[in-house]
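Allow me, if you will, to draw on your knowledge of protein folds for a short while. I have a record of one protein: its chain in single-letter code and its fold written as discrete structure tokens. I should value your view on which stretches of the chain appear to form regular backbone elements. Thank you for your consideration; the sequence and its tokens are set out here:
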Amino acid sequence: MNTPSLSKRTSASSLAQFTVITLFLVFMIVPILATALFSISVRWDRSIWPEGFTLDWWSKVTAKSAFKTSLANSVYISGASVLVSLALVVPTAYWVHAKLPRAKPMMEILTIIPFGFPAAVLALGLIRLYGAAPLSLASSPVLLVAAYVVITLPFMYRPVMNALEAIDTHTLSEAASSLGAGQTRTFLAVILPNIRSGVMNGSLLVFSAAFVEFALASLLIGTRFKTFPIYLVEFTRFDARQASALALISFACAWLISLGILTTSAHRSERPRLTTSKAKDQ
């Protein structure tokens, strides 16, 4: 007897969910489409629609040598941040998970702290600490990489720790030890291949966060080592159409990175877990 009313409630709930999702997609997609139209419009300030379309703004902004230099600088800085994060965070996360489980709460707190650091405060602290002799790293890309490693610490630590918690590190370590492997070889040859999805996700997150970061790059090195976000902001001051083209390029990079994260996550869910018996056989 309650079947019709239940069916109505279910359909109403489905309709509400569909409406919310549709509104969210419209809210997210419309600004991107407007930016794309503006970047290829001849003029768009006297009517509701663009007055013709052209690719001149894209060709002009991408033909500049500063575009290629700033893009290469951002890739260099982001890649260096990923490498330093991998070298510092991944072994630390494994050591805490396998050897010092009581330190996990402290590590969770430490990984949350960077979210509370304003960029101006972090930049000033780094300059005061590392800008004087004997290091004198002020206005150096090295200092910017160090800052990026700090603010992206949660993005690397959390995926790696999730991957470690999804496998039986104790059994795998014992199996490797019984075959004569030391701690370093166990980590590199046994543990690391089983958490590669978490390492990949963390690397992509760190790369994307460092690639689009503007505040720290502007405060620490400015135009001495111009990154892509700084180059983009400069164009907003005198040519919004070329700036729109640069914004779409930045969005495309972020979209490709997000697609990479989704792909690695899907591969991880489809990959069968290494069982204890297989680990012992190896």
Summary: The chain has 14 helices and no strands. The CA atoms of residues 111 and 154 lie 5 Å apart.
